[in-house]
Amino acid sequence: MATQQKSRGCGTPPPAAVPDHVAVNGTARGVIVAVPADYRPDRPHSLVVAFHGRTNSNAEVRRYFDLERHAEEPAIVAYPASLKDARGRNVWSDPGDPPDRLRDFRLFDAVLETLADAYCLDRGRVFVVGHSLGGSFANSLACARGGVIRGLASVGGGAARAGECGGPVAAMLLHNPRDEQVPVSEALRLRRALLAQDGLPTGSAPDEPHRFNCRRYGADGEANPVLWCPLADDRTRSGRFYPHQWPQGVGEAIMDFFARLG
């Protein structure tokens, strides 16, 4: 296990009220922060920052991501809220933002610094999660903040990357090849980019969770593996054909993947 990188909040009492916003360039941005009931200020916690998609709120994805109850290590989970565009859709960037300088990279920075001051975090165990548009944003963030983020997990996301990444990032990419909203070609392009970012060969081997057809790039014990999971969940529990969904069991698989990273 790597040496813990304790944040400034270690050893100090937590705030009387859990933060519900952070300041970004003078603007208050909403965030839901889930702190474990057994939180202790002397025990470094991992931080998971989870990003919602274009049509769901942070409260909605908190319910269906189902991350918190599957945490295998002490963890705080934060769900930031996006801003709206002129058409009322959720967006994580402004029109014309360069791919390496998306507006809400600063939102991630603010969430991390706010919670690192308020709570005891292990800054070596900061993770990002996203679905759909939120997955695309998390994918881009993992390049721009590669020196800060330990691991990435995204479902049905693409990415617009440019320039050099900040450092290697372990990744779990889940994508249905029949996805009609984000073509699998986008996910394959991202996989190639992550293999280059992490300096991994192109050979792979089957890995857990087999339920999602996952294959691991990088030897067993690799510090920054890439898990490619071309899941086959085409229909929702109600029977609707929707290969862009967040399948049941993905939240548990993601938290298990993060826990396995040394």
TrEMBL record:
Annotated localization: Secreted
Species of provenance: Azospirillum isscasi
UniProt name for this protein: Alpha/beta hydrolase-fold protein
Pfam families assigned: Esterase
PANTHER family referenced in this protein's UniProt entry, alphabetically: FERULOYL ESTERASE C-RELATED, PTHR38050
GO MF annotations in UniProt: hydrolase activity
Keywords attached to this entry: Carbohydrate metabolism, Hydrolase, Polysaccharide degradation, Secreted, Signal, Xylan degradation
Main location: secreted
Taxonomy of the source species: Bacteria, Pseudomonadati, Pseudomonadota, Alphaproteobacteria, Rhodospirillales
